[in-house]
């Protein structure tokens, strides 16, 4: 089934450690996004990529970095995790700027 | 500052009743307003969307009402069913700027049998 695959599904990480959340889509979508979901705050955009080779900052980019080496993959890296980065992270993609976004099933990350 | 504000935070309705969730936005440049449905352990899924050139859009039991002058839009779920129990998010974006979504805080809907 076509869609978005996120890995891992959950992770517990010690503060100060680095972590890369993986996201792969097989729909050949140009645009990809990373959101974090926190109770009472909804989903907030961390970083986005309109097309392979380009990235941009969203609403809450501090402490996170992304890369977009090819169309299918959009990894999110936490260089030095802090407890406030405990959240559920969702990757999404869309075919173009006027098409809906499709979401993966998320990565639940706990920073201790 | 939340650019899209959603209410209520939680909602309980009886089977067959009408569920109403409201959203208000600030940025008048927003031109695309989707609603997403999320079940536990899953990512959000697009439910229905509207653009500001119409005041209402209906798909089955789901209707979006849009009031451009008031900068408000709402989701109505008619004949609510227990299977509709989920978290609902409104969102807004500027399509010419890449459709980056700004989400509301979410509403947890429970439909009792």
Account of the 3D structure:
The complex is a heterodimer of chains A (112) and B (113). Chain A is mainly beta and 112 residues long. Chain A is 0% helix and 48% strand. Chain A has no helices and eleven strands. In chain A, the strands form two sheets. In chain A, strands 2, 4, 5, 6, 9, 10 and 11 form a seven-stranded mixed β-sheet that branches. A four-stranded antiparallel β-sheet of chain A has the order 1-3-8-7, with no helix packed on it. The radius of gyration of chain A is 13 Å and the shape is globular. Chain A starts with a strand and ends with a strand. By secondary structure, chain B is an all-beta fold. Helix content of chain B is 0%, strand content 52%. In chain B, the strands form two sheets. In chain B, strands 2, 4, 5, 9, 10 and 11 form a six-stranded mixed β-sheet that branches. Chain B is globular, with a radius of gyration of 13 Å. At the A-B interface, strand 4, strand 5, strand 9 and strand 10 of A face strand 5 and strand 10 of B.
Provide a concise account of the structure shown.
The complex is a heterodimer of chains A (112) and B (113). By secondary structure, chain A is mainly beta.
Q: Give a quick account of the main beta sheet of chain B: strands, pairing sense, barrel closure.
A: 6 strands, mixed
Helix content, binned percent of chain A: under 10%
The tally of strands of chain A reads 11
Basic shape of chain A: globular
Return the string of H and E elements of chain B: EEEEEEEEEEE
Give the quaternary arrangement of the chains.
heterodimer
The first-to-last residue Cα distance of chain A is: 35 Å
Specify the number of helices of chain A: 0
Please describe the structure with a list of short key phrases separated by commas or semicolons.
heterodimer; A: 112 residues; B: 113 residues; mainly beta; six-stranded mixed β-sheet; five-stranded antiparallel β-sheet; 0% helix
């Amino acid at each position: 089934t076509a869609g978005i695959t996120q890995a891992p599904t959950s992770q517990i990480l010690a503060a100060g450690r680095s972590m890369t959340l993986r996201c792969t889509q097989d729909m050949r979508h140009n645009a990809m996004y990373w959101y974090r979901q926190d109770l009472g705050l909804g989903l907030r955009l961390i970083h986005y990529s309109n097309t392979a080779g380009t990235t941009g900052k969203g609403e809450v980019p501090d402490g996170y970095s992304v890369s977009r080496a090819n169309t299918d993959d959009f990894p999110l890296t936490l260089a030095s995790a802090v407890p406030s980065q405990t959240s559920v992270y969702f990757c999404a993609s869309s075919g173009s700027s006027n098409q809906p976004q499709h979401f993966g099933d998320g990565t639940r990350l706990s920073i201790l | 500052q939340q650019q899209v504000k959603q209410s209520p935070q939680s909602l309980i309705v009886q089977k067959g009743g009408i569920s109403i969730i409201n959203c208000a936005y600030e940025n008048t440049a927003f031109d695309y307003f989707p609603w997403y449905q999320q079940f536990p352990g899953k990512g959000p899924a697009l439910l229905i969307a509207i653009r500001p050139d119409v005041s209402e859009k209906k798909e089955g039991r789901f209707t979006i009402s849009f009031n451009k002058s008031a900068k408000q839009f709402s989701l109505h779920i008619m004949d609510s069913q227990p299977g509709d129990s989920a978290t609902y998010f409104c969102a807004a974006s500027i399509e010419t700027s890449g459709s980056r979504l700004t989400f509301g805080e979410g509403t947890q809907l429970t439909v009792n049998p």
